[in-house]
Design a protein that fits this description.
Blueprint: H1 17-25, E1 36-43, E2 47-55, E3 65-74, E4 77-83
Antiparallel strand pairs: 1-2, 2-3, 3-4
Length: 84
């Protein structure tokens, strides 16, 4: 899941104490970023790839977009793999 690209202002790289508690209580969460963005998914018969795309700000037009993290699930290979 991903945050909306336009809600909640620009987002932040700082993790709030409440968010840290949530992360600590949910060790299955593999990725968190407080920035705005979206997830781009590419699916074929061999794998599912999810690219977490983020922007540095949404308060003014023209923010550069980047892929902050990518994960794949491959056919016949259990589990989520992070691409580096």
């Amino acid at each position: 899941m991903s945050s909306s690209i336009t809600s909640g202002g620009d987002g932040s790289d700082t993790i709030s104490p409440a968010t840290q508690v949530t992360l600590d209580e949910n060790p299955h969460i593999r990725y968190f970023k407080g920035r705005r963005g979206y997830v781009r998914c590419v699916v074929d018969r061999d794998r599912w790839q999810a690219d977490f795309r983020t922007v540095a700000y949404v308060s003014t037009p023209g923010a550069p977009i980047s892929t902050d993290a990518s994960f794949i699930v491959e056919d016949r290979r259990p589990g989520l793999q992070q691409l580096v």
